[in-house]
Design a protein that fits this description.
This protein is α/β, with parallel strands linked by helices and about 350 residues long. About 40% of the residues lie in helices and about 15% in strands. The chain has a single domain, classed as TIM Barrel. The protein contains 16 helices and 13 strands. A hairpin with a 2-residue loop joins strand 8 (about 165) and strand 9.
Amino acid sequence: MSNRRDFLKEAAGIVFSGCSLLRAQQAGGAEKHKPVIVGGKRVKTIDVHAHCNVPEAMALMPNSPNGQNLFLTPESVPDRLKLMDQQGTDMEALSINPFWYGTDRDLAQKIIKIQNEKLAELCAAHPDRFVAFATVALQHPDLAVQQLVEGVKKLGLRGASVGGSVNGEELADPKFHPFWAKAEELGVLVFMHPQGVPDLQKRLKGNGMLTNVIGNPLETTIALSHLIFEGTLDRFPRLKLCAAHGGGYLPSYADRSDHGCLVFPQNCVKPGTLKKQPTEYLRQLYFDALVFTPEALRHLIAQCGVSQIVMGTDSPIGWTNVAVDHILNTPGLSNADKQAILGGNAAKLLGITS
């Protein structure tokens, strides 16, 4: 652990991690990807779900964050660009999974300041390849509001990234309303990435990496359901919120929420909540297209609408067939649909104009 800690202290700038980076490095001088053309039009492909870390910020943590962020493969920007070229990605919107939600106010300020400044530096150095989401200390909502404003207005970041819960508290908790209000006011996108469900750690242990393949989409499903049923999305109807991994399980089984309210209305309605059916809220949320199969993507679009879907790869984790070809090869999509999902929708949400 001491060697790992020394590395984190000494490393500078941004660190990308993931097994797919090894493949990019092994590929050597792979050719730059060819422009994606759909219906005779050049499409700027934009990945809204891409990860990185800032070692200088991680080194401030007194203990290991939560495991997954510490096992890093250092990678230079050219290596990440090579991986993007292999995936057919023109631009990435970078985010950092929150490992700092348990920190006090002073430490959280230091971590976020370093991270957001490093993200801004990287984006300024490569404006045609990267934009980024500001990190925020959501456990201190008033501080998170300040960090969001500074990140967007001072540093040029395009929104914020948040976890699916905060120290066991739901994002629908009224204590987080000031943050949602400010994000709505600024008109920026909030990218929500799950951190698993610690309460189910015992049941998810064992073979199959269930903490990830079940736990992550489950947390997203729970978070979105609370945002719907507690009235958060009614309170902030213009909020732009994008859920990772296709929104977890919710879009696949959302009709059960409608029927639950039909059969048990007393459990669905309280003053100021649920101004429409639960499934209708899916059309005011955004989702990445990381759902692995053409049929899953077709259903996601049918449930939520083409205008709500953006490309997401989880880069550089190493999932296969979730990027450009996944979208191009999904039957039934018009050229306009493909153009929108590959980059058009994201360009509007992130303010990318060229």
